[in-house]
Amino acid sequence: MKVNLRVWRQKDAVDKGRMVSYVVEDASEDMSFLELLDVLNEKLILSGEEPVAFDHDCREGICGTCSMVVDGHPHGPEKATTVCQLHMRKFADGSTITVEPFRAGAFPVIKDLVVDRGAFDKIIQAGGYISANTGSAPEAHSTPVPKANADRSFAAANCIGCGACVAACPNGSASLFLGAKLTHLGEMPQGQPERWERVVNMVETHDDAGFGGCTNTGACATACPKEIPLDVISQLNHDYLKATVGGRRKKA
Amino acid sequence: MSYSDFSVGAPVVDKAAPDGPIETRWERRKFGVKLVNPANKRKVKIIVVGTGLAGGAAAATLGEAGYQVTSFCYQDSPRRAHSIAAQGGINAAKNYRNDGDSVYRLFYDTVKGGDFRARESNVHRLAEISRQIIDQCVAQGVPFAREYGGLLDTRSFGGVQVSRTFYARGQTGQQLLLGAYQALERQVNAGTVTMYPRHEMLELVVVEGRARGVVVRDMVTGEIETHLADAVVLATGGYGNVFYLSTNAKGCNVTAAWRAHRKGALFANPCFTQIHPTCIPVSGDHQSKLTLMSESLRNDGRVWVPKQIGDTRSPKEIPHEERDYFLERKYPSFGNLVPRDIASRAAKEVCDEKRGVGPSGLGVYLDFDDAIQRLGRKAVEAKYGNLFEMYERITGENPYEVPMRIFPAVHYTMGGLWVDYDLQSTIPGLYVAGEANFSDHGANRLGASALMQGLSDGYFVLPVTIGDYLASNKLPEVAPDAPEVVEAEKAVQDRIETLLSINGTRTVDSFHRELGHIMWDYCGMERTEDGLRKALELIPELRREFWNNVKIPGTGAELNQSLEKAGRVADFLELGELMCLDALHRRESCGGHFRGESQTEDGEAQRDDENFSYAAAWEYTGRGSAPVLHKEELLFEYVHPTQRSYK
């Protein structure tokens, strides 16, 4: 199949950037979208041009590295699918496909489709963990966890940290990412001692990193390749209110 | 002298494991190590390369202990290391099922599963620590699967008869890695760990015979930086990508380990690679990686091919009596649940007989029709729904309607840098953890044991043993302009300049694909004397062409993904040669290493314990020059070698 691509090219962080058109004549419908870019890049290299830089690693939808907006959708139009598992059979022969980086103030472009998502690590550093030094753990069965809590925790822990939620959000908010981590840890009995401290610290770091506020558009959950439920944001708001207005957070 | 005329050097011996009863060796080793005074720990610098289960756990734990840790990963975040893709689970001898499991049984299963090519002391320690790992991960909030009573659920896995595998749906690796990653980020926040994502290690700094630092490249700016320390830990994963197509992430590479090998660390059992039987077949030349379908599918799926060669009917039209359920036929007692190496080889055999299915003929059916009839579609959906969806997403075929097509793919490498019981390589001060070392799985790894080993090494072994080295040795500060440091930096610069200056006519990927074909054809599921000799001619030729004809656009002073790949492929072109030599010299079949010349009458792997009961640790002597073989004799005091049988 033949595909026309319009790809965002930007040499480095200071370059203004522009859309550039390419044609791939010999695409196959069994290719993943990233394999299509591989084919394009092989051609570009041989013709003496710079290949399109893009982030990718596991190519099986779990590492969260791949990050691009395809036809206006983070990870492309296919529901619950990272762009590495998006296949060309979903596009018509002769289509024109637009490819851009994830765009958000807190995710500056490094080159072409590669962005800096280091702000996510900073949010986790602020409290996205349970403090349990190695060796200090009690026997695993000493604390039963009701299955419903364990399942809800897992559904939130499923977040791959790709940033599609931020790219989809008109405000560039990372509330879905935040809410997912708070729900993962907050559903566990082990997560309770630091619960109120955690939410305040993570939210403050989120705001300082330049992510926007949440206005409940729900675009994040629609774009999320792992279908993190929107109600994790309710959990975030619930915990934040209890910690601050509710006075649960005890200053040490 | 040709490359295959290697010489045999002095044996290599593990001096770190205590003698005596195996049950107390680890206890006694822990008591025997010298300790670093807590006040002194903050003056000691440790470098950890890699942030998967082993590296992430090690960096976090060393940071908690108070050391100054510097951690590097090539990914944009430590959370993305490839441990994240592990699906099935993690073994632990908790015996929560009351099904007769014990530390000794896990030890026994692992030594046997590894086809008697692993070191007993290490494996026993691994089995002991397995229990602590589950405790630790639960304390971190890892959302393991639970039963209605709130207690942890377990399931069974290939090759064993107890239910000891803990899991978090099909994403156990992800959840365990996030636990380690969060512990790591907690230490970053505490100031004990300094994290450098998007940094790739390109050289090891060895000063006066000791590992004292690394040279890394900042993959965003291209800047070459040297980091010095008192000890270095490599937790840089396996080398399955030497085959180009594998289930590894695209970035997985051997460079850090290979650079250490070139600086004197012995590389052990490089030919021990694991081919996983249930992956989605290759669909065309564009294929960039292979996707694993969980081993658990073999619990209900039946594997078959048509009995007749050239039967092109659609699978539904082929009646039962014209199908060959070859695993059930050959292994009636284990059936579709034989271990990975055996299932893979059986699939290859029927494809070699031209009975393979799918457009390429390289595939076999994994059919759920009987399971759907027996259990109902709903029950099958509940068990495997997410896997079926993934299959459909990739292939466009609905496995509820037509059988899946699967084919074996490279998945894991048991070989790696040689380490002693303390996980120290043959370079003092260089420690190696996780898949990057060779230590625990022998010639074949059992399912759900990789996660166990990574976390055992990282959380519980290395943080103890490394202290012994740090407390026992005077490690004077290394000057940044010491000749060894300057030389290491210059070597990195020169190599990058050379790569960029070639400006030939072939892309890096084209070389990588060609190397992958050579490795798969001659050093894949079945290896023969002739094939390996052929590969040993082809690889050096390809390597010469690479260094004369590769084309890398751009410069070194920017994000340059072609340059990154070129450095990795250059090292694979050396490793591949060593793998073939190792496979050639080991004239026996064991575990994942199947030599066509060494099989029983009915085609099973035939070990040769008399001549090959050793780990082969290779010493580097120069590119393309014959390496020196150092043997570590393996003693089996507890589990006595027998022929594995799954009939």
UniProtKB/TrEMBL annotation, chain A:
SUPFAM superfamilies: 2Fe-2S ferredoxin-like, alpha-helical ferredoxin. One of its GO terms (molecular function) is 3 iron, 4 sulfur cluster binding. It is an enzyme of class 1 (oxidoreductase). Residues 150-179 form the 4Fe-4S ferredoxin-type domain. Binds 1 [2Fe-2S] cluster. Binds 1 [3Fe-4S] cluster. One of its GO terms (biological process) is respiratory electron transport chain. It catalyses: a menaquinone + succinate = a menaquinol + fumarate. NCBIfam families: dhsB (TIGR00384), PRK07570.1 (NF005746). This is Fumarate reductase iron-sulfur subunit. It comes from Pseudonocardia halophobica. The gene is sdhB_2.
TrEMBL record, chain B:
It is found in: Cell membrane. InterPro entries: FAD-dep_OxRdtase_2_FAD-bd, FAD/NAD-bd_sf, Fum_R/Succ_DH_flav-like_C_sf, Fum_Rdtase/Succ_DH_flav-like_C, SdhA/FrdA/AprA, Succ_DH/Fum_Rdt_flav_su, Succ_DH/fumarate_Rdtase_cat_sf. Keywords: Cell membrane, Electron transport, FAD, Flavoprotein, Membrane, Oxidoreductase, Transport. The keyword NAD does not apply. It is an enzyme of class 1 (oxidoreductase). Its main location: membrane. GO terms for molecular function: electron transfer activity; flavin adenine dinucleotide binding; steroid dehydrogenase activity, acting on the CH-CH group of donors; succinate dehydrogenase (quinone) activity. Its cofactor is FAD. Residues 512-646 form the Fumarate reductase/succinate dehydrogenase flavoprotein-like C-terminal domain. Pfam families: FAD_binding_2, Succ_DH_flav_C. Its EC number is 1.3.5.1. The active site is at R340 (proton acceptor). It is a peripheral membrane protein. Belongs to the FAD-dependent oxidoreductase 2 family. FRD/SDH subfamily. This is succinate dehydrogenase. It comes from Pseudonocardia halophobica.
